[in-house]
Structure formats: C-alpha cells, structure tokens
DNA sequence: AATAGCAATGTAAGCGCATACAATTCTTGC
DNA sequence: GCAAGAATTGTATGCGCTTACATTGCTATT
C-alpha cells in the first residue's frame, strides 16, 4: 500500500482540524464554504487519498459487496456480474468476486473470507449450499441473497427465476409439436440446484402430459459444446425425436452433432436450449431457448442488497419471469440444413 | 458489517493477551502448542472472525488486487479474470473488479477508487489510458501492470501479447492463399489500443506484401455478431475476397452474413477471427483465428503482481505468443455450406 | 545451585479515520 | 450593544488489529 498523505497533513495545510477535513470528505453540510474550499485545495495539492480501511474500521461499514459464483467462463454469469458491478458502483459500493468452481467446500471457505473481508452484502448463486454457509451467514448479520434461483421456501432471500417452472413452457411446446419421445442433455446436477431443478421440471411436466422420462434418455454433461457434441449420439440410441438441453452451449453442441449425423434439425430432431445467449438467435438453425434476464437480475441483486444494507432489513426477494423463444431448432425453417 | 467477537474477547476467553491471539492468527511459531490450542478453541467457540480492515490498517497492506476491465460481456476478459481470481486467491489475495465500459474517464475514476480502497496491486487492460492514470499510479507506489498488450516501450509493465504482430500471421496466410483484395471488420479503435494495433498490424503487413488497404475496405464496429452481420454487405461492395475480423464474435457475424448472401465461405470469401473462442473450432465452417492464451495471461498477471508486491519491486513484464489456427473459413472444407 | 540465555507471553502504542461532545464564532432580535 | 441561540470548528476517544519492546518463565551449563 502506498505511503500517502493523511487527513492530518491536509488539516495542517489547510489550517483546520482533522474533524473538519473529515466533514469535507463526507460532504457534511456544516462546513463553511470558504473553509471547504481551502480544505479541498489542500487535498488536491497533497494528492490526498483517503484510506478506506481506516474508514471502514471507524464506521463499521466497508461499502463492499461480495459475489461468489461458480465460474466466469459462462456467459450468463459474466453478464450478470457485469451488471451487478455497474449497479453496485452507481450506489457507491465496490464489488469483490470469488470463483467457487461449483464446489460447496470451496464456497464455504470463500464465504468465510468474504466475512473476514467485511463485505456489507453477499451474493451466492443458487440454493444449494453447505450447512455451515447458512449458519455463518445467519450468525453474521451480513446481508445476503441467493441469485439465479427463485423458490418460495428457500432458506435465504432469492433473486432469480423458477428453474423448474421455466421448463414447463419448453415441454409444452415440444408436446404441442407432437413429440412423444424426448431426451435430455442436462447440466451436471450434483451440487447444482439450477441444473437439478431444470431436470425435475422437465420430468414433472412430461409426466403431466402422460409421458415418461426413462433413465437412458437423460445424460448429464458439463456445459460445453464439446461434451454435448460427444454425448448426443448416445442419446439418439434411445430414439428420441427431441432433445432438451440444459443450456444454450449444450444446445449448440447438440446441433453440431445432429448435423454431423446428417439429421435434419427440427424435422428429424428438435433441440432446445436455455439462457438465450446472443449467438442463439444468429446461428442457423437459430436455437429455440428460454430467455433469462441475466443483466436485470444482476443489477437487481446489487440494488436490493444495498437497499437492505442501508435500511437494515433483510434482502427482499424478487422473482423474474422467463420466456420461451421459439426458433428454428423446433419449428423448422426455410433454411436448408445438412 | 456484522457485530462479531473481537480479538480481545478471544484473548479473555483463552486467558491470554491479544498479542498472543494475534500471533496464533498469523501463524507465528513462538506460541507454545498448548496455548495455541487453547486460543484456537476460544476462537471456534466464539465464532471469531478477524477484521480485515483493522488488519489492513495496522499492517498497511490489504492483500487485495484490483482489476479494471472494459467489460465482462466479452468471453476473453471473462476467462482471463476467472484465471486471475483463482491465481490471486491461491496466493492469499482477494480480487476487486470494476468495469470501465471502454471509457478512459470512467477508468480514471475507477483507478482513484482502487487506490482509496487500498489495493496492493492493480491491473489495467491495454496501454491506452488517461494521463492522470499514469500520474496517480506512479505517485502511489501501488504495483500495477497493463495486460492484454505487450509493447517494449509501453510506459507500464506489460503482460500480454503483441496485437500488431499477431496479425502478421493472418495476413501472411491470406496472401499465401492468393488473396489480393482484403477487407477488415475491425473493433472500434477509439480508446482501444488492442483494436488499433490489430488494424495497424494488418495494414503494415499488407504493405509489406505490396498490398493496399483502402479506407473503404475498413469498417469499425462493436464486438457483436449483429453489428458484424449488418456491416459485411458494405464491405463486400469493395469486392474483397477475404475479411479479417477484429475478433471471433465479429467473425461469426461475418460468416452468417456471408451465408445469408449465398457466398461459399473460403471459396468466395475467406474470413478470419481473433481470440479462438471455444465455439470457433466447433462451428461449421470452423473459424480460422488467432489463439490467445487468456487464462495463462490472467494467472500470470496475478502471480507477477503478487511477486512484485512481496518483493517490493516493479512488476516484471511478460510477452505471450499468439498463434494462427488455420481452419475452414480460409482453407475450405469437405463440409457443404449454403 | 546460581545464572546466562533463550523461549514464550504481555504491555502499550499507534495505523487513519469518524464522531460525540466541548468550545468557539457568528447571527439575530431587541 | 448585548444575550440567546444557531452555526461552525476543535478536542479527544476508540474502531480491532499488529508489533516493538518489556517482562516473565524456563532450560541448560557451570
């Protein structure tokens, strides 16, 4: 950390007390204009930079928000965090991030670090966390919220969407189109409530339509094109006419694999994604997918956290709606596909 | 911030002084084992969580790294930051990020905030910054490094690659294939030295081959598929046989636009990208592109920054090599394209 | 058995800031 | 021109921690 001038240097230079300097710094309105001006000049001349840690120690607030996410190598988290940071800063808060790599034990360690660091508010992703995480958070009085999921009986405030419910529209759409044998390329469900709920929601809705989802019609894979591309042939063995993918990246892999196999997409095989990445609209065939308001969610998380911190109340929950975007991978197109 | 137990609570409970508690906390080896154990028990019983801001204030170190990036909505930055965070944490440092939205004035404000916050090290992207940024940084003695670019006469240490030089291989490849009229879909160069250098490098290398790059063969656009798709037709008016794109996302847009126009990619129109996003290999046609070691760069930035902080020396620079990956958008393929 | 020498622990002084409270200066009404 | 009150500024304490230095307890050497 740099050796810089301190408040008392400024005070001395401006011929006032440190209290007055502090008041100028914090925009108190009980400083006479000429004095304020003098202090501000002294600050500028000395290149004075206030010390946040001293300030945090004195005020017991850090004006810092923490976010612990599984990865940034996923566009949806990256976009959400981008929006979260912007909104946080507009409110005068700084963002600290950490990556858990989808590991609950790592996440616990990170939560502890965030608490040490003294964040005023903390965001986690999803509702599946180590018990100790909940214990720590509840004991600490640091505001927290779980994003990307919404569940009325979640143990923590939620700002997100209903991952299970989101799949209903997808299933309904495919069933409407006459599909009876439907397979799933799910994300890896272990320790991931979003992936789990999407699979559960799919199964539930299929049952609601009187359709079965046999074990061999479900494959769990990493969120990567390569993994999806490799997995599709296995799924095709169970003779499905439609594949529901855990997200858009998986859907891309499925599309490429289907093309490799010489299938006509939507005619021979319908494919759906999740997230509505910007590519999904542009690709040919364009991807039928579920739109998720990642940026909105991110900024809402920041704003609700700050609201909660400043009003000294628990974070308000917020449910976002998702919507199905029907595109070429399910309803065919005029474009020729291999 | 939470009201938690303090070091002196622990000291009292364990029947020792706060100094001993502090020593246990910092792993000093001059505490007797039985005393250490007693203190650790007291910590656990009281759910003691050390206060980082007090610690920072006392030690004059924050064990925090800052990163100011243009956006997270770009996979390459997201991946780099992901790696940076992981490496930083392995070294015991926390990452604070801020988004500048490619705006130098915002960036200046963020640098100032980072300095207030007391980061021990700071990463910026590229070598184009507000003069005041350099002044502040040099005055502050906070270690800093500029990533994603490498230039021997840069005013700051650099950990990145030579954006201009990287284009030489692209141009050489296209010229080798016989292309004479080459167009460029560049990123927006204003305030972006990476985009500028890629364009400059392209022009230089074309000249080296005796080829001209007329104004109407260059279009600057945002890094988005949509913008690229919209811009390609304009470029085609100048009758180019190859298009060099500022990054892979732009290349995707160009590919889609070419397909829309009924062109045979690589035969009628060659296209190149930059970044080697994971999609680029999978897409048909696959994208000829420049591979950038984003994750390596991110972790190197973290490690070099921490090295510099802990050794009290300037950050060492590091030059990464890029390499051309020749794929279907330039050398044709057995796949049929529309 | 006395003591030098070291190991383990305690004491106390800040780190830079905010803020309660005290002291001072300025208004205003008369 | 004076007092009461408002406006402004100063004084001094403490936030929770680290650490230089002082002190105590122990071991080993003679």
UniProtKB/TrEMBL annotation, chains A, B:
Q: Which UniProt keywords apply?
A: DNA-binding, Transcription, Transcription regulation
SMART domains named in the record: HTH_LACI
Tell me which residues make up the HTH lacI-type domain.
5-59
Gene3D superfamilies noted in UniProt? 3.40.50.2300, lambda repressor-like DNA-binding domains
Where does the record place the HTH cro/C1-type domain? 6-49
Pfam families, per database record: LacI, Peripla_BP_3
Single GO MF descriptor = DNA binding
Q: Does the keyword Transcription regulation apply?
A: yes
The record ties this protein, via SUPFAM superfamilies, to: lambda repressor-like DNA-binding domains, Periplasmic binding protein-like I
Q: What is this protein called?
A: LacI family DNA-binding transcriptional regulator
């Amino acid at each position: 950390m740099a050796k810089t001038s301190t408040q008392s240097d400024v005070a001395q230079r401006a011929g006032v007390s440190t209290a007055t300097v502090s008041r100028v710094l914090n925009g108190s309105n009980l400083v006479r204009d000429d004095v304020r001006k003098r202090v501000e000049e002294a600050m500028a001349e000395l290149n004075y930079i206030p010390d946040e840690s001293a300030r945090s120690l004195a005020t017991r607030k850090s004006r810092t928000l923490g976010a612990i996410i599984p990865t940034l190598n996923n566009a949806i988290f990256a976009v959400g965090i981008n929006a979260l940071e912007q909104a946080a800063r507009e409110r005068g808060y700084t963002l600290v991030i950490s990556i858990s790599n989808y590991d609950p034990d790592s996440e616990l360690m990170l939560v502890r670090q965030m608490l040490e660091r003294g964040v005023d508010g903390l965001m986690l992703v999803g509702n599946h966390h180590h018990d100790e995480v909940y214990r720590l958070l509840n004991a600490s009085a640091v505001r927290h919220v779980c994003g990307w999921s919404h569940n009325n009986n979640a143990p923590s405030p939620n700002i997100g969407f209903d991952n299970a419910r989101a799949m209903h529209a997808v299933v309904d759409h495919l069933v409407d189109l006459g599909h009876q044998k439907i397979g799933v390329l799910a994300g890896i469900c272990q320790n991931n409530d979003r992936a789990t709920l999407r699979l559960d929601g799919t199964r539930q809705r299929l049952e609601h339509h009187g359709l079965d989802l046999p074990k061999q019609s479900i494959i769990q894979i990493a969120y990567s094109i390569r993994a999806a591309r490799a997995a599709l042939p296995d799924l095709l063995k169970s003779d499905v006419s439609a594949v529901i993918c855990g997200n858009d990246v998986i859907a891309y892999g499925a599309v490429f694999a289907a093309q490799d196999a010489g299938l006509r997409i939507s005619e021979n095989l319908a494919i759906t994604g999740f997230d509505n990445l910007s590519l999904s609209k542009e690709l040919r065939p364009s991807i039928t997918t579920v739109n998720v308001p990642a940026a909105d969610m991110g900024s809402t998380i920041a704003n609700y956290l700050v609201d909660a911190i400043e009003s000294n109340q628990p974070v308000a929950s917020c449910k976002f709606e998702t919507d199905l975007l029907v595109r070429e991978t399910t309803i065919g197109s005029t474009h020729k596909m291999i």
